[in-house]
Write a structure and sequence with these properties.
Elements (H helix, E strand, L loop, with lengths): L4 H5 E2 L4 H10 L4 E6 L6 H11 L4 E7 L1 H8 L8 H9 L6 E5 L5 H7 L3 E5 L10 H6 L3 E5 L7 H12 L1
Parallel strand pairs: 1-4, 2-3, 2-5, 3-4, 5-6
Helix pairs in contact: 2-6
């Protein structure tokens, strides 16, 4: 049995630099964003659709399980990186998913060298990791407005409240 389309969209960490070079050589505008995407919700989908509209190819850096735990605490992630990566790759707006284990996506951004770096508008541009790399290479940073009152943390809190 062959790989499914979503599995083909998941690329190995060490292949990122080659992917970036190939896409640039083909004249494609590379968009990069990253996150934990622990429990996929409508806010994530809106954000990723908006990010995809910033260029030709959306590459999603997905925090590994270890990385999520370092950021969010020992009870997270709820969903494993294997399952999160498959769900993210199944979205039509996401072209490639790469799992990274580093504390932040800085090195991944340097290797991919995207034209556009996307983060939520809740981040000041000065605080966005990789913004300096992207702008120094002639790219730009796009800050997306997030949907209010929806987040993985809020969803988990609602579930816990309902069943406690």
């Amino acid at each position: 049995m062959g790989l499914s389309i979503d599995q083909l969209k998941i690329i190995e960490r060490q292949a990122v630099a080659d992917l970036g070079k190939t896409l640039r050589d083909r004249g494609r505008t590379i968009v990069f964003t990253n996150g934990c995407f622990d429990i996929l919700h409508a806010g994530h989908v809106s954000y990723l659709q908006a990010a995809a509209h910033q260029g030709d190819v959306l590459v999603l850096g997905l925090n590994s399980d270890a990385s999520v735990s370092r950021i969010k605490g020992p009870s997270r992630p709820v969903i494993s990186q294997e399952h999160r990566s498959r769900v993210m790759a199944a979205l039509a707006c996401v072209d490639h998913v790469v799992i990274f284990d580093e504390p932040d996506p800085g090195e991944l951004i340097r290797e991919l060298n995207p034209h556009v770096l996307v983060k939520g508008a809740d981040w000041a541009e000065a605080d966005i990791i990789g913004a300096d790399t992207v702008t120094q290479n002639g790219g730009r940073v796009a800050r997306m407005v997030l949907e209010p009152d929806i987040s993985t943390t809020i969803i988990i809190e609602r579930i816990v409240a309902r069943f406690s």
